Amino acid sequence: MASQLPIYLDGHASTPIDPQVLKAMLPYLSGQFGNPSSQGHCYGWEAAAAVKYARQTIAEAIHADPEEIIFTSGATEANNLAIKGVAEAYIQRGRHIITVETEHPAVLEPCRYLERLGFEVTYLKVKPDGLIDLQTLAQALRPDTVLVSVMAANSEIGVLQPLTEIGALCRTHQVLFHTDAAQAIGKIALDVEAMSIDLMSLTAHKLYGPKGIGALYVRRRSPRVQLAPQMHGGEQERGVRSGTLATHQIVGFAKAIALGLAEQPQEGERLRLLRDRLYAHLQTLDGIHLNGHLTQRLPGSLNVSIEGVEGAALLLGLRSAIAVSSGSACASGAAKPSPVLLALGRDHKLASASLRFGIGRFNTLEDIETAAAQIMLAVQSLRRGAS
Ligand SMILES: *Cc1c(COP(=O)(O)O)cnc(C)c1O
């Protein structure tokens, strides 16, 4: 069955809520409305029990303990809490942080903020395939380095960084390792023990859960990570993140993760086949350049630069048929090439003529065939107009 138009292929930006997730959430938006912190009556107890169960589900999914999960409003807040919280708590030990040029703004901007406060940040370059070089990371480590922050899966090009190797390196040097796993959770296996991860940011809305909920995993043992709270108030989440817990969001988040785990790895294989099919179609056009490593990437993720077209014009031509995103963000009306694609070494022209596809749970083979046909028509028509 084909999806409604335009066909949604922008799963890196957000995803629709799975009907099962919505169903799990609804009781907590009506009858079971209690505050999980209210310990004097059954409304509070019911909410607290739901939060407890959700916390367990999420912890198990990443091989953590429930007390190591701190709920936040999403991955942006989790990244801010991890980076600023560690920087503040470990200021006596050092003021140097290492991250990567291709990180999400929710990592880069807290780092830039810390630089204005006197911290030093090293922004690692990536190889042309989007992956970091472990040797370069090893060389960047200093005695005053307190944190390394490297994302699990890139939000534009989908590449998967070598978490296990990075974690091992950080552990050897006794430097904390944070990973932004907003795009990765539920799609690839994440294990905070096997990967030596000390802090991990999660969000629900890239995994068929609601917007406005996420979590930060914070290691409690060997080592016990110290974190300075960035939100002060009623001391929820053991004082690390104050604010009334959003029971319905938390329940939906856990359901989304449980569904994601249950469908793996079969769903990953299905998405990989759809993705490869789309890429095979696009490759029949001349001048198609894959952005990011061919196989070391999320199964539903594809990013290509297309010679001889303008990214903005291409999106305009496609918008009634498919919903995708381009490397050219049009915040001010001016097309701006993607910093991630520039970091891969793409020139301005190719960096601003890219399409990012995030194929997901509700996409069918028919969607992919339709999308491919529409893109090929649009590219050919734009190229004819240009010549
Ligand atoms: C979407 C995304 C974020 C932001 O998450 P929110 O929950 O929307 O705040 C952060 N990092 C990455 C890699 C993302 O893809």
Average pLDDT: 95
Distance between the termini: 38 Å
Total beta strands: 13
Output the CATH topology of the largest domain. Answer: Aspartate Aminotransferase, domain 2
Order of helices and strands: EHHEHEHEHEHEEEHHEEHEEHHEH
Rg, Å, rounded: 21 Å
Low-confidence stretches: none
- Alpha plus pi helix count: 12
CATH architecture of the largest domain: 3-Layer(aba) Sandwich
The 3D shape can be described as globular
CATH class of the largest domain: Alpha Beta
SSE class = alpha/beta
Q: By CATH's scheme, which homologous superfamily of the largest domain applies?
A: Type I PLP-dependent aspartate aminotransferase-like (Major domain)
Ligands bound here? pyridoxal-5'-phosphate
Strand content is: 5-15%
Q: Number of folding domains? A: 2
The biggest beta sheet is recorded as:
7 strands, mixed
User: In percent, how helical is the residue content?
Assistant: 25-40%
> Can you list the strand order of the major beta sheet?
2-8-7-6-5-3-4
Can you put this structure into words, describing what you see?
It is a single chain. This protein has 387 residues and is an alpha/beta fold. The protein has two domains: 7-16 and 264-386, Aspartate Aminotransferase, domain 1 (Alpha-Beta Complex), CATH 3.90.1150.10; 20-262, Type I PLP-dependent aspartate aminotransferase-like (Major domain) (Aspartate Aminotransferase, domain 2, 3-Layer(aba) Sandwich). 37% of the residues lie in helices and 14% in strands. The chain has helices at 19-25, 42-61, 75-89, 105-116, 134-140, 163-172, 247-263, 266-282, 311-318, 339-343, 348-351, 365-386; strands at residues 7-8, 69-72, 96-100, 120-124, 145-149, 176-180, 199-203, 214-218, 288-290, 301-306, 322-323, 325-326, 354-358. The strands form three sheets. The protein has a seven-stranded mixed sheet with strand order 2-8-7-6-5-3-4, with helices on both faces. Strands 9-10-13-12 form a four-stranded antiparallel sheet. Strands 1-11 form a two-stranded parallel sheet. Helix 2 (42-61) runs parallel beside helix 7. It is globular and about 70 Å long. The model has no long low-confidence stretch (mean pLDDT 95).
